[in-house]
Design a protein that fits this description.
Number of strands: 2
Largest sheet: 2 strands, antiparallel
Radius of gyration: 21 Å
Strand content: under 5%
Shape: globular
Number of helices: 15
Structural class: mainly alpha
Distance between the termini: 35 Å
Oligomer: single chain
Helix content: over 70%
């Protein structure tokens, strides 16, 4: 009985953590990119997040090895140096995540937090499409319907904001930078595409390896550092040489770096306690929180079309995670087979994805 209570507590903790992670990160990124003062270089923030993530995961791996330094070094050598094939496979998602996180900053710079939060749910669609075409998975009819609702909802949200912008007399400008909604939308779509690809890549190539979550994150972050450094100097070399690497940094930016670094690690831990319904509830709450907070923080204009589109997205999230065959399978084959069943169409890579 005590185990059952602990499991329930973990579910509630998972709900709160997933909700706050989904909502606060989008709001914080938007605020950091639109507040008055010097604007930090987002490429450097992405790189610093990988540094923080690497240090955190190294500490966790050290703890996993019983705090034995020699055993810790041997494990790192065995996993990273002595297994070059597996390490090279991780290069692909390492590059993908660097590009994805940079695109999310571009999207947050040009889309309000509420629109960004809703649009980014298209990663469900891209993950499903990659699963169908690459893994040859079959989706339930309810899931196809959910994807259609998701697409309609996001389109309505974008049209609502386009109409709002068009009604303004002048182009919207925040902190002296003109807001390009089309650029923000393209960046969000690109991030969704990369998110879907990374999830399916893990399932197809990396999922079978006997490596802990923290060691896998060590590999990812370690290989992300050279890609992140190249991105910094390709996109912002002149600004870095002129103003310095940490131009525009203050306590809030460091908080954002820690939030982005720790968010994915927290989700990687708690997501195993959260089923699809709980995850859908957390995502839906995050959308609502982002909309309400945007009204008060960013003077966001909530229209009926936006609210209806967001509602369709929320419904699609629940509908996509709903498996009508789950209870039947569970009654006939036991609870273990329900968890391992992949034929029902529930996509695990998005749940097991190690980084945001």
């Amino acid at each position: 009985m005590n185990i059952h209570i602990n499991a329930n507590h973990l579910k509630y903790i998972s709900l709160i953590t997933l909700t706050l992670q989904n909502a606060i990160l989008g709001l914080s990124m938007r605020y950091a990119r639109t507040r008055p003062g010097d604007i930090f270089l987002s490429s450097t923030a992405v790189l610093m997040s990988e540094v923080v993530k690497l240090i955190t995961c190294l500490i966790l791996v050290f703890n996993e090895e019983g705090k034995d330094f020699q055993k810790f070094v041997k494990t790192l050598h065995k996993t990273i140096i002595a297994n070059p094939t597996d390490t090279l496979k991780v290069c692909v998602p390492s590059l993908v995540y660097i590009v994805q996180n940079n695109l999310l900053y571009v999207s947050a710079s040009h889309l309000d937090a509420a629109t960004y939060q809703v649009t980014y749910q298209l990663k469900i669609l891209t993950t499903a499409m990659f699963a169908v075409f690459i893994l040859r998975k079959k989706l339930l009819s309810t899931q196809w319907g959910a994807l259609v609702l998701l697409l309609i909802g996001v389109v309505m949200v974008q049209l609502a904001q386009t109409v709002t912008d068009a009604s303004g007399a002048a182009a919207q400008t925040t902190n002296g930078v003109e807001q390009n909604r089309f650029l923000g939308l393209m960046a969000a779509l690109g991030a969704c595409f990369l998110s879907g690809f990374a999830g399916i890549y893990f399932e197809k190539i990396l999922k079978g390896a006997d490596i802990s979550v923290w060691m896998r994150n060590v590999q990812l972050s370690l290989l992300s550092l050279p890609f992140g450094t190249i991105t910094c100097f390709v996109s912002d070399a002149s600004k870095i040489f002129e103003h310095g690497f940490f131009f525009g940094y203050d306590l809030f930016i460091w908080y954002l770096v820690l939030l982005q670094a720790g968010g994915g690690l927290i989700v990687a831990v708690v997501v195993k306690y959260a089923d699809n319904i709980l995850k859908g509830f957390a995502t839906s709450l995050a959308i609502i929180i982002s909309c309400v907070a945007s009204i008060y923080i960013f003077d966001f204009n909530l229209t009926f079309k936006f609210a209806f589109g967001a509602a369709l997205v929320i419904v699609s999230i629940f509908l996509y995670g709903y498996d009508p065959n789950k209870k039947i399978v569970g009654a006939a084959a036991g609870p273990i087979k329900v968890v391992t069943n992949s034929s029902a169409g529930t996509l695990r890579p998005d749940e097991e994805k190690l980084l945001p």
